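Notes from the 1:1 (GR / supervisor)

We went over the backlog. Supervisor wanted to see one worked example end to end before approving the batch request, so GR pasted a single chain during the call. The sequence is below; no edits were made to it. Supervisor asked that the structure be written out right there so they could see what the output format looks like.
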Amino acid sequence: MSNNYKILHEFVKVNGIRMHYVTMGNGSLIVLLHEFPEFWYSWRYQIPTLSKQFKVVAPDMRGYGETEKPVKKEAYKIEKIVNDIVELIHVLGYEKATIAGHDWGGIISWSIAMMAPDVVEKLIILNAPHPGVYSKHMSKNLKQILRSWYIFFFLLKEFLN
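Structure output shown during the call:
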């Protein structure tokens, strides 16, 4: 059956890890980056529609789904995650891609656009503020700090170590 009609599960070695991704369709590349704490499956409804126009790739990012989960904390620095996606684009034979990210995937998408702009054809962000704007409001806006309480929950272990 052709890649145009069925979601295919693939694995590739990028940036020192084994990454799982799904793909469907042909044409220009669009990479869909999932939110926290999800994996590629959160894009399951968008993939068939987008695959009519694009080669869709939805990876399980580092630490999620069927992608490797390195043990060391340093393995999850933003630079590593950005490099995972940049290498994925290149390993798939593309120089550029449309990058679409939701929530945590949106933060990674912003980071790719800032750290590796040469691989970004177009950028689509859902439910993730620009990092500069977010930082500005986090330092001055009590309402935003209260709305972002869960981030501090995830960082609690860091503060306790």
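Supervisor's comment: The two ends are 52 Å apart (CA to CA).
Batch request approved.
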